[in-house]
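Researcher: Next entry: Elongation factor 4 (Fructobacillus cardui).
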Amino acid sequence: MNLKSIRNFAIISHIDHGKSTLSDRLMEETKTVSDREMTPQLLDSMGVEQAHGVTVKSRTVQNTYRANDGQDYQLNLIDTPGHVDFNYEVTKSLSATDGVILLVDATQGVQAQTVANWRLAHELGLPILPVLNKIDAASAQIDEREEQIRQLDPTLANRQIYHISAKTGLGIADLLEAIVHELPAPVGDESSPLKALVFDSEYDAFQGVIAQIRVIDGTLKKGTALQLMANGQKLLAKEVGIYQPNRVPVNELTVGEVGYVVTGIKNPKQVTVGDTLTSQSQPTETALPGYQQSQPVVYAGIYPVDDYNVLQEALQKLALNDTSLVLTNEQSEAMGPGFRAGFLGIFHLQIIKERLETEFGIQVVVTAPNVSYRVQVAQKGQDIQTVTVTNPTKFPDFDQILAVEELVVKATIMTPSDSVNQLMKLADDYRGVFMDMGNQGDYVRLVYQMPLSEIAYDFFNQLKSLSHGYASFSTEAIGYQEADLVKVDLQVNYVQVDALAFVTHRSRVAEQTQQLVHELKMTIPRRLYPMPVQALVEGRVVARVDVPPLRKNAAVNGQAKSISKKQALLRRQSANKRQAAQSDIELPQAVFNALLSLK
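Model: Predicted structure:
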């Protein structure tokens, strides 16, 4: 298609503002999908996406639209997630677009992820098309929400803000005309050597890695000998095609078009997202800049309930299509072989766990998530070393530690004024340091400096609960700062359980350990004898409780013996049973969930 008739765009919004529904209406209006094939949230094809009502994985779809001027246009929609945990997916999508639709809910207004996604688009210099959704809702506040959008971006001060209802299709025709006439066409040279951006990838068991690409210059034809510029990997374009939204083979992809190429490469690590694809016979001179790879934010151990090999195969399959999932092998004395996995956030962890259960039928035990720390270690006769610790069991001994640094983020909370006091108290409880406060339309903006370890677990849920769902939250990494942190070890029946270890601030040790041992008292499976559960910090027991036995196993044999002899027999029985059971401690998922309940 003519380069001037192509539009590559994405939709960015806060979660639940109607982005997936708008995608459905655009495909419906352009007849990309027939009425028989049309289903709600068509681009959210994974079960977990439909169950939670959120987009997890970016998707691409090519639409053909005949505008009012009688000309056909190719509209390449590159879908984006709205949840804060999947910002990396948004970054990948925006790198392949020439403009964005900024979608705002008329009932909720500009929220934290709206601002975060707008900032990503603004930094890339992408033109923005403002759209107000759900204008037919009874609680819609159109004038106030338009003012919020104009305050967000000064360049939108005199721009028309389009009003739509993605649910009913109201205003979709006008929006399509705006996409054609207000968003720019791609720029490129068809006569130049092939230069294509690999902005995403998926894995097929039969066809290998399928790279999703945007052609910047030149033409990509089926059967062309190609190479990746980052590592020099050579490949053959076994098939090229477009998404509608399923894969549709075509003969070629020209400059400005978005589609896929079947590489046949069986090792997914050889295809790097952000790499430049070019021709072997006539390669381009300069590679595209690409973008920074995703970095895990939280880490957790994943252990199988049954078969380790089945879990290994399932996780490897998930990692093939989720480049943000980082896996390393791990061996726990209590849990056996498993994996230490890095995630973009707690919701990402939850999605992976649910996919293991629903798509593969595997029951797993997931340890309490933790973040990374930097520890300065001094050993006799050696120089001072700084090590990064992502697993509490690898935390150095306390007598070798000079200093511990934790990752600190700048947290921005957008909340209605009636929730300000509760949320400020919440931030203080999570070791937040107040930085700034201001007004943004009808909302109050609170800015705090907070340790990532404090907000990685349930802070977002507490925030939504206290604000009745109206507050929103975004973070921006600041860096590592020194803090008084210690490692807490847990012993069950005098045996140290490495999978239960965690790192916390010294000021919280007494409160958290007392709460934890009493939680474990109710969740650890009982035996025929009492089992002590105790927490240790720097070699010292700081909290202890006994798990009560199932029943008293007294020396009841019908013989008349003195109380002292019965007690001596009980002590010998208990000692023998403990000795036999020390290596047979079973920990269900509820034990690790107790760690998440700590305040």
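Model: Note for the record: The chain is about 25% helix and 35% strand.
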